[in-house]
Structure formats: structure tokens, C-alpha cells
Amino acid sequence: MSLSSDSNEINDSIFKESYILYKLSELSNIELSAIFEKSLSNESFELNLGIEPDGYAQILFNEVLRRAGRLPYSKELNFYIYNDLLEFTVEDIIQSVGEEKLEKLIMFMLDENDKKEEIEAIIFEMVKNFSNNDEVIEKYHEVKNALIRKYEKEKSVIKSFIAHMINKAINNSFPPAVITL
User: Fold this and answer.
1) 64/106 Cα distance (integer angstroms)
2) How many whole angstroms separate alpha carbon 66 and alpha carbon 47?
3) How many other C-beta atoms can be found within 10 angstroms of the C-beta atom of residue 96?
4) Which domain of life is it from (predicted)?
5) Which of 45, 78, 95, 158 pairs with 85 at a CA distance of 20 to 30 A?
6) Based on the number of CB atoms within 10 Å of its own CB, is 65 exposed (0-12), middle (13-18) or buried (19 or more)?
7) Cβ proximity of 137 and 128 under 8 Å
8) So where are the chain's domains?
């Protein structure tokens, strides 16, 4: 393969990726939420069948994060999600709370659902399902309240918990994607 041919392939790939991102930007938040939730469900189902997933769930997740805006981050939150909670996958989330509640979490991240108490109850349900002792469950409240005091943006803190939990599930579910556009 010549250098020119490699360059053409790279340009084609960049064009296709840009086109996909452009098309994603045309979706409403409600459409993006539904498509992302279905993509997570489908890719999880494909893995169960031994089929390699297409990897679009990660692209859609990145678009959800972009639209969610800047989210608070802390070492405590990161350690809590990735170390204190048990390992879990997208399928575990779906089995734990169901597809409808997963979509509600995504809609909250995209500001299409303002039922904060309902969302917090879903997150707490996941925390209880993905922890092995009461200390980890209590630590959820400690970490959440510390972040709220620090950033003074409760909704953003809740979005950050959702984002980290979905990210952990995606990372544990799907092999690193090599997306062929």
C-alpha cells in the first residue's frame, strides 16, 4: 500500500467520523437518549451471543457527555465508582434497574428529566445492587454530599455519578472498540 493510499484511507475515515458526529448533532436529546439506551442494550445482547459489538455505544456516550456539559470530578468519586463498588457491566445495569430506568438516567444527563428524587432513587438502587456491604452504601451519601458542598451544583454532581457508572459499565462490557467507518 502506498503512502498516498494510506493518506486517502485516513481522509476517508476522518470524513466518515465527522459525518457521523454531524448527524448526531442533529438529533434531539430525547432521540439521542433513546438511541443510546437501545445501543447499550443491543451491544450487550450481541456480546451474550458471542458477536462482537459495533462500538457505537461509546460514540453515543461521548455525545451524551458533550451535551451534558462540564461535570464535577473528584478523586473520591473516581475511587468510589471504580474501586469501592463491585464490578458491573451494561447488562448488570439493565438487569438491576431495567431499560426504562436506564433511559431515565440518560434523559436526566441531557436535561430532559427533572425528577431529581426519582433519579437519585435509581442511582441508590444501583449502588445497593453493586456493593457488598453497608459501608459502601453509606459512603455513596458521603461522597455525593462532599461533592455538592464543593461544587454547589447538585444536579451536576448527580449527572457525574451517572456518567461514571455508565462509563464503568461500558468499559467492563465491551472490548476496546476499533471502529471501522
Assistant:
1) 8
2) 27
3) 17
4) Archaea
5) 45
6) middle
7) yes
8) 3-173
